[in-house]
Amino acid sequence: MSDLGAAFGFFPQMKPRRQGLPSDSANLPIDVLRGRLAGLLGAPADIANLLRSPSPTEMFGDVSYDAPAQFPYTTEKFLKDLPLAPTSRVGQVAGQAASFVPLNPMPAVRGVQKVGQVVGEELAATMLGQRPNTMMSKVVPQPLFVVPPEQGLLSVKTEPIESLLQTKPQAPVSDIGFYSATEQAALNLNRNKGTGQSFINDLMKAPDVKKEELQFTGLEDFLRDKPNVTKQEVQDYLANNRVDVQERQLAGSGDKSPVFSEFNPDENKYFIYTNDARLQGIYDTADEADAFVNKYNSSIPYGPSKYDKYQLAGGENYREILLTLPEAMPNTALEIERFTKRMETMRELQNEFANAGNMEKAISFASKADDLQAYIKQLEKIPVTRQTENFESSHFAQPNILAHMRVNDRIDADGKKMLLVEEIQSDWHQAGREKGYKSKESLEKWYNQNKLDDDPSFADLNSEQRSVIERNRSAGMGGDNAVPDAPFKDTWYQLALKRLTKYAADNGYERIGLTTGRQQADRFNLAESFDAMNYKKNKDGTYAIAVKPKGEGIFQSDFGGTTLSNIPEKELPSIVGKELAQKIISGEGRQAASRKVLEGIDLQVGGEGMKKYYDEIYPKFLDKYGKKYGASVGETSINISKTQSKDELAAQVYGRGETYRNLPSEQKRKIDVMFRDMARDEPIRYLDITPQMKQGTSKGQPLFAATPAIPAAGLLDEEKRKEITSLLDY
Predict the structure, then answer these.
(1) Which are the contacts of 29, defined by CB distance < 8 A and separation ≥ 6?
(2) Comparing C-alpha atoms, which of 382, 362, 371 is closest to residue 343?
(3) Where are the beta strands (DSSP E) in 107-158?
(4) What are phi and psi of 591, to 5 degrees?
(5) How many helices, marked H, and strands, marked E, lie in the chain?
(6) Residue 141 has pLDDT above 60, yes or no
(7) What's the CA gap between 587 and 536, in Å, rounded?
(8) 622 closest CA partner among 722, 730, 515
(9) Bridge partners of residue 635, in order along the sequence
(10) Which uninterrupted H or E stretch holds 116?
(11) Is 57 helix (H, G, I), strand (E, B) or coil?
């Protein structure tokens, strides 16, 4: 007889002094639950195999035939394959005993599960010495030694095995790797019905859900004051009103063969072609085809880049990545209100003619009312847009750019392939900080400040009246030049850096790099290249500019291939930088004849703001973001290689057509210094793309989960907040 049996109370008279090891019994509850689960999972196959087995008479007779195939997923298989396999013989016995559920197809699976549950619980309790006087204790001997659950593996609270097997619904992940944490929370709500406020409270308790997302999806307004809402209504609303951040890339000199779908009636399928008529795919439904087209066209560069000259020398594969919101839609709420009034008028006319006995007219107006009602139902399906006006950037033609990133490829001093971030900027939110946003709150504040004493309060106005007020304000009628409201006011750079990290992880980069504040300041410091600049405003509103290069005695209006004679005001920032453009527009500088002159310190722009962001705020966020993936911000260097000849430098500095050989000695020495400096090493901050980061970002990242590195508005007075957040306005 084995010692193991004696240790656990089997035939104790043979080994009276032997006690088992605590570890042998510590995991019995897990072993019993594992056996019970194996029995439940294997029951269908066990029952089916039992029914397919030979009958008793055939088993003892001389009947000769091929035995029928057996179903493989039996209790025995699950006992072998399930995780947490027993490490002791007692655990194996306990699991096998717990798996013996009745192999009877009637009652149905629920009854089988209940019997298995009762048997398993009784067996587990008996083996743990908790059922000394039950029927099960007569079958299963009591142990002489047992470890209480709180001292074994169950000392750590675990979820029931049934709950571990359930997969929680996941919110869809966008083409650029983001998902809605609010939608994720809505898919997993425990509440089925309730007030709108109760659903808001439930959602705000979920991980990564931010009030900003509830605001910009419109969910907060949708739920507020609603007495009865269902979980399905909340889920449907979020699915139709996502904050849809999209991506576009600019690189090279032209379009990069976008694709489009075309329905083929002969095949009853959707064919995907490139602009040069190459077939890319075939899909059964329009939704599948649209999904492919959107993903393909958003992942490739299109159109020419604009600012490739503003990068450190030596990079490859330069491109400009734009994070955008969809173009603004008309205010569907106003449209619905307008057509509803028209439909009600048609119904009134229908009733009037019906009462007058003119059925022909009544039927005509009824038909018109029905058409309007059908149209209103279509309008109600359109997602509620929080934005009814587009934002136009001073740098790019594409509307509604939340942030733009300029990047290129490098090999750093450690031999690592790096995605180098040359620049991150948000024209939209810089304009918002300067001019304000056309938000509901700002509109209400403006109205209350400018209304007459006998005007109704803002809350009493209907949507059409509010729309008129907003149009008047934005048109300058006693209002301001505020920009359309937009999300990510303080976290746009975090959104951009998270996207770039995901991009690097997906495309084989080993690191993401970040330029320094000094490099940014030097790039836009015109005092390094010019002694002076003069300008004047033309009659048509454009500007004429001339620059005096270092060491030159005359001003030039054609420099580096750029004509500076008729520059629209909107394009000034892209030519001379935002800060210098503001100086020109505001008329700064000393007067010289018909022009004004900027020189010396007036040409130095953007230094402090760039250092604040590129040396502090950006690296701090990357370091915090990387820690959860086992990475931290470090420093390395890149080589600024010679990418231009001395002749090319001469033409760039001293004008088109100039060559190094034709320059005077002093100017040649300057070109020599510039040529030498182009070969130096430059310091770069970096974050490694770790395997954990690749795995983590592959599952998607919450869109609104970023946390501002700048203190919230309530912690700083408005003037101090503007001072900090305006540092990047260059």
Answers:
(1) 124, 128, 149, 152, 154
(2) 371
(3) none
(4) -80, 135
(5) 30, 22
(6) no
(7) 9
(8) 515
(9) 685
(10) helix 109-127
(11) helix
pLDDT at 197: 94
Percent of the chain with pLDDT over 70: 68
140/120 Cα distance (integer angstroms) = 12
Pairing type for strands 701-702 and 558-559 reads: unpaired
601-659 residue pLDDT tens? 677 665 666 788 899 999 999 999 999 999 999 999 998 866 667 888 888 788 777 88
- Which pLDDT does position 416 carry in this prediction? 94
Cα(35)–Cα(380) distance, rounded to whole angstroms? 53
| Nearby residues of 384 by Cβ (< 8 Å), 6 or more positions away | 218, 222, 241, 332, 333
Other CB atoms within 10 Å distance of the CB of residue 553: 7
Structure tokens at 141: 């001997």
Residue 396's pLDDT is: 87
What residue type is 561 in one-letter code?
A: G
Strands, E assignment, 97-237:
178-179, 193-194, 229-230
Give residue 372's identity as a one-letter amino acid code.
L
Which residue do the tokens 């803002």 mark?
Answer: 458
- Both tokens of 310, joined, read 């503003």
The pLDDT tens digits of the residues spanning 120-135 come to 555 455 544 544 554 4
Type of residue at 682: E
Q: Distance between CA 716 and CA 490 in Å, rounded?
A: 14
Pairing of the two strands 483-484 and 437-438: parallel
- Listed range (151-165, 285-299, 547-561) with the worst mean pLDDT: 151-165
Which tokens hold the place of 633?
């911000």
Half-sphere exposure of 222 (CA within 13 A, CB side): 24
Give the separation between CA 727 and CA 711, rounded to whole angstroms.
15
pLDDT value of position 605 = 62
* Contact (CB, 8 A) for 86 and 92: yes
Separation between Cα atoms, residue 506 and residue 177, nearest integer Å: 10
Chain position carrying tokens 């892209």: 574
Q: What tokens does 337 get?
A: 């209100």
Helix, strand, or coil (residue 535) = strand
Facing residues of 636 across strands?
A: 684
What is the SS3 assignment for 656? coil
- Write down the H helix ranges in 381-462: 427-435, 440-450
CA-based radius of gyration for the chain: 36
On whether the CB atoms of residues 724 and 716 are closer than 8 A, the answer is yes
d(CA 300, CA 659) in angstroms, rounded, equals 38
- Give the span between the Cα atoms of 428 and 577, in whole angstroms: 16
Sign of the CA dihedral 165, 168, 169, 175? negative
Q: What angle do CA 608, 611, 615 make, to 5 degrees?
A: 160
Place of tokens 């002159």: 597
CA dihedral sign of residues 149, 154, 155, 159 = negative
| DSSP helix/strand/coil, 426 | coil
Strands 558-559 and 316-324: what pairing?
A: unpaired
Close Cβ partners of 635 (under 8 Å, ≥ 6 residues apart): 683, 684, 685, 686
The 3-state secondary structure of 489-531 reads CCCHHHHHHHHHHHHHHHCCCCEEEECCHHHHHHHHCHHHCEE
